[in-house]
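To whoever is on call:

I kicked off a structure prediction for a single chain this morning and the downstream step that reads the tokens threw a length-mismatch warning. I double-checked the sequence; it's 138 residues and nothing unusual in it as far as I can see. Pasting both halves so you can look.
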Amino acid sequence: MLKSPFRDTPFTPKLSYILAALSIYDLEETKGEALWKHDPNNTEDREKIITDFILKELMYLSYRHRHVLISMLKSALTTQDFDFAKEFESDHDKYETMAWDETEIDDPRGFFADIYRIANEVWKDDLQKASQEDPSTW
């Protein structure tokens, strides 16, 4: 069973893990400013956000963890009525403030589809390596 990176518990990913890099709670003047230089609705800017922030921050995960996370994203993308906008909602009770809220992202599903596409390009070798392994041995 694949364990969480920092705990001795099973790894049960959530889609929100993918957007963790966009959480700017108490970092508005640093991380927020860096993110706000980009428009998440502009194709070129979105790709920069995905590669320079989202995928880069997920590199602490092993190739197996990233494979599980991207597989979960693929499953969500194949669910027609999945509400991707909710993933951009801030939760101030949990100290989560997103750089852009759900009203500022024109196409939340498209944003996640781009994450999926770019992750499969950037992490191609690692995702392929994990796909050739038996997950029951993790």
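Update from on-call: the warning came from a stale cache, not from the record. Cleared it. Sanity check on the structure: Residues 15 and 73 are 7 Å apart (CA to CA).
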